[in-house]
Design goal:
The protein has 154 residues and is an all-alpha fold. Helix content is 61%, strand content 3%. The chain has a two-stranded antiparallel ribbon with strand order 1-2.
Length: 154
């Protein structure tokens, strides 16, 4: 979801039916330079740009605001997942959660951890993470997604 400076947020979608579904949707205020940076990196992630994690790392070196840093770390972790670097995605997400206990992105990071475990065929660890999301936020988008993914686990 992209918020275009004061206008209602709009949902980003794949360009056409042959494009992959977006990996991540965020609300971004494109009225600021930092917001434009986040939007460009989010677009890079959703277009499966293999260099998005490195681009986020470089952007974080510029010491952006806390809010923007959280979004960049989230995009970076999803970039690792997209590049099939599941251990890096898990490590980054766990580090994020340890440092940002009250973040609005907690459930997104937990879901990423669960999805990474699923990709690694570590179903017990995956189930434990999905259960944590379902117990914590059953009615959230992430809670519903975790419940559906839990049903699909073999």
């Amino acid at each position: 979801i992209i918020s275009l400076g004061g206008k209602p947020p709009v949902e980003t979608t794949a360009a056409d039916e042959n494009s992959p579904a977006p990996l991540l949707a965020l609300t971004v205020d494109c009225a600021t330079d930092e917001g434009k940076l986040v939007k460009s990196l989010l677009d890079a992630l959703n277009s499966r740009d293999a260099s998005v994690s490195e681009k986020c790392k470089n952007a974080l070196a510029g010491k952006p605001s806390h809010e923007i840093s959280e979004k960049l770390l989230l995009i970076q972790a999803y970039g690792h997942f997209s590049a099939e670097k599941f251990d890096e995605a898990i490590t980054q997400a766990k580090d994020f959660l340890a440092k940002n206990k009250t973040s609005s992105f907690t459930d997104k990071m937990l879901l990423l951890i669960g999805d990474s475990y699923a990709a690694k065929k570590q179903t017990d660890a995956c189930r434990a993470v999905y259960k944590k999301i379902i117990d914590k936020s059953p009615d959230s988008e992430e809670g519903k997604s975790a419940a559906q993914k839990m049903k699909e686990l073999v």
